[in-house]
Design goal:
The protein has about 300 residues and is α+β, with helices and mostly antiparallel strands. About 35% of the residues lie in helices and about 20% in strands. Strand 3 and strand 4 (about 30-40) form a beta hairpin.
């Protein structure tokens, strides 16, 4: 088994992220599980850009101190560049959708509220994620959602340099706000558009503009209204439609506003077999969070 930096023993693959491979590993020094992201450094003109992107992702993720963002423990280089992060025991929301299809209104909004809480923290820190999608959300057994992969995140301030040239499209095109496809800069509003895409997919099991032809899907994103949501409460359908507005100024003003709009629909949650703990009444992490919630 490979050991990174004489400390992190690689055990099994998790998947591929926006900038490299992610592996389960053991921190031999502290005897705890971690996740290690490995990024191979190319021996060509792209080396400098890859290093810069890697350092940005590590610094951005470490900067966000929030329960919905994995903790960064370490980063460096041992042949490959590496980031050692908090191990996440759950699976991606994309895998959940693949297994269960459309989710109930309580579960869809429960996931959405947590994503909005993370985006509120990111936006307060002058950061834009730019790639919110089911593949970048991990559902832990206690029901908490972690937002991962800040590889294409950017800053609305001056601390982090730009990683894309004008006209380039960062993130995943099929979840991208129409103004970004047209070449405009990312904004908090474009992050909120991705929340609309996420909610639509959670509620229906498919993306709002899904097409087998990628070019056709991009065209629909920029030119067609999202198909109406059926069998969804009118207020929730209206909020999702507002998030998917072509005009950024017609979307909700901030992540906190979306959070407040989703919160009333999260009641009546029941465990998802095979995904969440059947009985959280004795889970220490859940009990701690529940105690904190009494402050609200």
């Amino acid at each position: 088994m490979r050991t990174i930096a004489d400390r992190y023993q690689i055990t099994s693959p998790i998947g591929r992220g926006g900038m490299g491979e992610v592996w389960n590993a053991t921190d031999l020094r502290l005897n705890r599980p971690v996740a290690v992201k490995l990024v191979r450094v190319p021996e060509d003109d792209l080396e400098r850009d890859v290093r810069r992107r890697f350092h940005r992702e590590a610094r951005i993720t470490a900067r966000l101190r929030h329960p919905g963002v994995p903790v960064v423990y370490d980063f460096g280089q041992d042949d490959d560049l590496f980031i050692a992060m908090e191990a996440l025991p759950g699976g991606s929301v994309a895998e959940l959708l693949g297994e269960h299809g459309a989710l109930s209104v309580p579960w869809a909004t429960f996931i959405g509220t947590q994503v909005c809480a993370v985006l509120a923290a990111a936006h307060d820190a002058e950061l834009l994620h730019r790639d919110v999608k089911p593949e970048n959300l991990v559902l832990d057994p206690d029901g908490s959602v972690k937002v991962i992969d800040f590889g294409v995140a950017t800053s609305t301030g001056d601390e982090f340099s730009k990683i894309t040239q004008s006209g380039q499209i960062p993130g995943t095109a099929k979840y991208m706000a129409p103004e970004l496809i047209s070449g405009e800069d990312a904004s908090r509003s474009s992050d909120l558009y991705t929340v609309g895409c996420l909610l639509y997919e959670l509620l229906t099991g498919h993306r709002p503009f899904a097409s087998e032809n990628p070019v056709r899907e991009l065209s629909r994103i920029t030119s067609e209204p999202a198909p109406p949501l059926e069998d969804v409460p009118a207020e929730l359908a209206a909020l999702t439609a507002a998030l998917l507005s072509k005009d950024p100024h017609q979307r909700p003003t901030d992540a906190l506003t979306v959070y407040e709009g989703l919160r009333p629909w999260t009641g009546g949650l029941t465990p998802i077999p095979g995904w969440t703990t059947a009985d959280l009444t004795r889970d220490p992490g859940h009990l701690y969070t529940k105690a904190l919630a009494t402050l609200g």
